[in-house]
Each structure stands twice: as C-alpha cells, then as structure tokens.
Amino acid sequence: MSQDSEVTVDYIDQIAVVRLNRPEHLNAWNNKISSGLDASLRQVSDNSNVRAVIVTGNGRAFCAGADLSGGGDTFNSSRDRDQHDTSEARTPQFLPHQVTKPVIAAINGPAVGVGATYPLMCDIRIASESARIGFVFNRIGMLPELGSHSLLPRIVGFSNAAQLLMGGEIIDAQTALSMGLVSAVHPDDQLLDQAIELASQLCAAAPVSVAATKQLLWKGLSLSWEEMHRMETPVFDWVAQQPDSVEGVTAFLEKRPPNWAMDPSEDLPKELFD
C-alpha cells in the first residue's frame, strides 16, 4: 500500500506497523481510512511472515474521530451512496479481533470517537503521555459504536464505562492507565519503540498457539466458564498433537530457541472454535 494512502503498512522483521495516515487532519476517520484499514488488516492477517501487528497514527494524533466535513448529516449512511454498497463503508468490515495475529494499539495522541472505540477491538492498548481518549458521541447527539457498550464495561468496569460513554469525558493517559483502558503509558518519543518491543515478545511465542489463545479470549467474552472449558479442551488436545508443540517442548528441554513451522492463517482449523 503506497505511503500516500490514508492507511500505510510498514514491516519491521515479523511485525507489521499499520498507520492511519491523514496527519494534516489528525487522522480524522473517513471512508478511505475505514476501507484502508480493512484491506491492510486482511493483508497482514494472511501474511505468513507477520506474527504481530501494531496500529498507530501518523503525526501527533491517533485519530481525532470522524471527519465531520460533511456537516450535520455526516453520519447518515445513505447520504452519499447506496446503503448496501460496503466497498467504501464508514464502518469497518474486518476488525482487529479478526486478525489471526495479536494486534497492539499504540495510541500516540488524541483518540476520540471512533479513535477511542476502534482500539477496544485490539488485543492490547498502550498510550503515549500526550494521549487523550474520549468517547464523545453523546456530546454531539450520536451513539458509541463498534460494540463499545459491550467491550468497554468488560475492560474498565461498568461504572467507569457508564461515565465515559454517557458523559463523553476526555481523559488523559494516566487516567486511562488507572482504569485499565491501556496497559502502559510511555513518553511520546518512545511509544513506537515500546510497541515494537512488546510485539517482539509476542513474536517469540508459537504463532498457532497465540492465534488459538486470541480466538478463545475473544470467544470468552460471550461464554460462561463451563462453555469455555468445553471449547478449550478440544483445542488443547489438537494443539498438543501438532509439530509446534513437539518443537516447543523439545527446544525447552534442549535449552535452545524453538523453530516454529506452523502458520495460523493456514494451519488453525476454524471449526475448532464453532
């Protein structure tokens, strides 16, 4: 994807860095960013050389929310196009939790509206010291989206979620950290390096095991303990029979780094999680 696109992808070893790329507009969300993220995440999910993904913003913002240049009916989905045509849909169609690799949101500045809800679907969120996060929808007569009414209470607790979603308060990075909305806060000039270090740690684990764990974590949001136990057991048994399991145990006993051979985009049966 070209570097003048609204979304760019760079590769650092086994890590894909996906950037929202409208810095002159603080990466305000438009149809091209939405479709660009869809295409980029599908691309890296299917790329056997990628083991972890970072999503961040180019410039001094992560995402300043929706581009409101369309005026008062900006959010009217039928305003400019056939509502059944999703090729340029403002709502993303392929989301971070669907990627077969771990996805880290590196929130590098203001993140409001969809800039706050989109990272909820990433597996891990970290932020820069200058980050400001706000679910500001109610303040402009709109409604939080992307499943945030379900995800945010699970992340920060019901009371904090109610305050953030209903009031639309914009919080700083340290407040986000204290709520558990992000897991770490770093100086602005160190955020990407820290995200890469974290991604590198994830890359060291068995890719298929990581992908299976990710699937189970997201499935677990809607399952009881008993249901999850029933789902985990056949996945555990399947993983134990795979060559990467043999390699991992053997490498541990031989005190050497493992050589993983399996690719989650090809080798992990989807029916295990049905």
Could you describe the 3D structure shown?
This protein has 274 residues and is of the alpha/beta class. It is 38% helix and 15% strand. The chain has a 6-stranded mixed β-sheet with strand order 1-2-3-4-6-9, with helices on both faces. Strands 5-7-8 form a 3-stranded mixed β-sheet. Strand 1 and strand 2 (15-20) form a beta hairpin. Helix 3 (148-156) crosses helix 4 and helix 7 (207-219) packs antiparallel against helix 8 (225-240). It is globular. The relative contact order is 0.12.
- Form type: globular
Helicity, as a percent range? 25-40%
Main beta-sheet strand count, sense and barrel state: 6 strands, mixed
Enumerate how many helices there are, as a single number.
10
Find the CATH topology of the largest domain. 2-enoyl-CoA Hydratase, Chain A, domain 1
CATH architecture of the largest domain: Alpha-Beta Complex
Any idea what the CATH superfamily of the largest domain is called? 2-enoyl-CoA Hydratase, Chain A, domain 1
What is the structural class?
alpha/beta
Quickly name the level 1 CATH class of the largest domain.
Alpha Beta
Give the termini separation: 33 Å
Order of adjacent strands in the largest pleated sheet: 1-2-3-4-6-9
Our count of domains comes out at 2
- How many β-strand runs? 9
| Radius of gyration over all CA atoms, rounded | 19 Å
Our estimate of the beta-strand percent is 5-15%
What is the H-and-E element order?
Answer: EEHEEEHEEHHEHEHHHHH
Average pLDDT taken over every residue: 92
Unreliable parts: 84-88
Which structural traits does this protein have?
274 residues, alpha/beta, 2-enoyl-CoA Hydratase, Chain A, domain 1, Lyase 2-enoyl-coa Hydratase, Chain  A, domain 2, six-stranded mixed sheet
